[in-house]
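Researcher: Here's the sequence for the chain we discussed earlier.
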Amino acid sequence: MNPKSAIKGRGAQLNVPNRFFELRHEIRDDFLEFCQKEGENADKNKTKYLEVFPKTIVNKVTSPHVGMLYSMNPYQGCEHGCVYCYARNTHEFWGYSAGLDFERRILVKKDAPKLLEQQLKKKSWKACPIVLSGNTDCYQPAEQKFKITRQCLKVFLKYRHPVAIITKNSRILEDLDVLKDLAKYNLVGVNLSITSLSEDTRRILEPRTATSKKRLETVKSLSENGIPVNVMIAPIIPSINSHEILQIAKAASDYGAVSIGHTIVRLNGAIGEIFTDWIKKTMPEAAEKVLHQIENCHGGTLNDSRYGTRMRGEGKIAEQINNLVKLVRQRYFKDKGMPKLNCNLHEQYKNGQLKLF
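Model: Thanks. This is the structure I predict for it:
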């Protein structure tokens, strides 16, 4: 991609139409030419934070593939800008595009801590790990401004309720004090995504995320403080990061992770168009090869919603990837694993303090 023509700091390079809208917005070439002649920017490329007011914050997860029963997301949309992100499609439900809007229109749920507390105090609620960031990263740049994730972690601690975290940002270490307190009661586990050890790859795939080096240092810091870490090599994209599985797994083990997980990339809904546009602009010589190899993993299509195969793929390429992950799991994580979180304390703390009788 020509650096001068790229939208800096963003993964997606366009706004795809929202599937729920009849009308679509397009920037015409004559308008772009006018802006160039006038020395104006056609696109200011700024992030906007928009407050929303959901009635609940904890969501039941029905998919059998994601390994969680409940999740919550303090933010919708994600400024990290990972071009492959499955969560992009959910931004359409809010009336925005899965493309650039997903990275630049961040919906903020300031009431999340209060809503979480209401949920945990319900007499009918039985403790079960709730996952922060089942959809969008709770430690994206917005967290530095709003601190909603930190407030939620304090609620989990107050009620002695188990919580799991998915992130790819070293900003999680800003909450190390609360995480250590949760870890004393075996109430927290962290899933940290490391997609590549190459900064060149990381920068174009995930433009506003922490560097690979910082992520490994984060794994080490969390592990040294008694917080178990599972490293997610997710997604694995053929011919982009598939050759790094061995190196990532070894580095994760060396830095203290107790397990690894993985998924094979799938480009559902609008993500197929976003990714195809991105790779043809970013890696034009490799674009067709990569796209065909992704299709090879999903029955000849970029879009795969089939239970049983969509996360692990099928075919020769997917088989090679899955076998390699099994090999490195045996080599670097044998007899290791994430501990089961403690669900036994919460009932005693439903009123925010220990019951004596």
